[in-house]
Amino acid sequence: MNKLPENIIVWISENNNIESLRLQLKEMTETHRISTDKLILELKKTENRSLKISDGYIQLETENKASSFSLKKLQEIMEEYFEDEKNRASECMEFIKSRINSSCTESKEVIKRYKL
Known about the structure:
This protein has 3 helices and 2 strands.
């Protein structure tokens, strides 16, 4: 009737598998990052920034990445927008922060494992 011991064994086994895969993924990600850096350096040396591979091609491109959006950045933008009304910018920020805090909080039951 009591399936608790069985559930614990399954949970620990899967937890161990996940941790092992997480470590493998971390190592693979680092190896991939290093090979990417080397490949970028090599492709920059060539005139053709594109290479044909078995299932298509790879190409060196330049991506523009938008800067992250933070409350501090939002505060600066609001102060710039409400130039002579700093108080208004602060009021808007307080309103936004209160909405974020009240609507983004989610809680759920979880099981955490602590290894000795």
